[in-house]
Write a structure and sequence with these properties.
This protein is of the alpha/beta class. It has seven helices and eight strands; from the N terminus they run βαββαβαααβαβαββ.
Length: about 200
């Protein structure tokens, strides 16, 4: 491995709000009842992630033997008055339509400013990923989109990136100093998390 840094980013399993296409930020909802087991193509004894239940529970499901370190700065964006509401419930609000078009400049009422969200996520990520190592994160869709927009190998905006459940996004750098300098990763591998088939 040498001086290289490998980072695996995994979105939490779906919750009821996810299936109903609600904005789910700081609401602490559990994942749906899962009966499957999963094949993860690497082993992790330590997993980092958000302190919200859906990330903690997903990490336990995917990495049952690993230690989990929770960080509140790795939470999803706080959607304020848009929290736990759907597009259909919000589409007639001017402030919502403005936010959809330009989330970097418009803040949801009683919610979190995008620049604050970006700062806390990047500061926490750089604090954790600071030496040659292989890191695993179980976090939220918005957090992964933020990290891919900053560190993905090709330049894409937050709005242009889509992040799926049951998918591993693996970023690799040849040296941790590249991350400190805010430089993009040298490779990105995207692979699905597959269910284990019964023997």
């Amino acid at each position: 491995m040498g001086n290289s840094v490998i980072v695996h980013l995994i979105r939490h399993e779906k919750t009821e709000a996810n299936t109903m296409r609600k904005y789910l930020g700081w609401t602490d909802e559990s994942i749906l009842d899962i009966h499957e087991s999963f094949h993860i193509p690497f082993q992790s004894t330590l997993v980092y992630g958000s302190d919200l239940k859906r990330c903690v529970e997903t990490a336990k499901l995917y990495f049952p033997m690993a230690e989990y370190k929770a960080f509140s700065p790795l939470r999803e964006l706080n959607f304020g008055d848009f929290e736990m509401k759907t597009y259909d419930q919000l589409k007639n609000l001017l402030i919502y339509r403005e936010w959809i078009d330009c989330p970097q400049q418009i803040t949801p009422p009683n919610g979190e400013n995008f620049q604050h969200f970006k700062h806390r996520v990047l500061a926490c990520f750089k604090q954790i990923v600071n030496q040659p190592h292989e890191y695993t994160f179980v976090v939220h869709g918005g957090v992964i989109r933020m990290l891919l927009s900053e560190f993905g190998p090709s330049k894409q905006t937050f709005n242009e990136i889509t992040v799926n459940h049951r998918t591993i996004y693996t970023l690799k750098w040849s040296n941790p100093n590249l991350i400190k300098g805010g430089l993009r990763c040298e490779s990105l591998l995207v692979e699905p998390i597959m269910e284990k088939r019964p023997m």
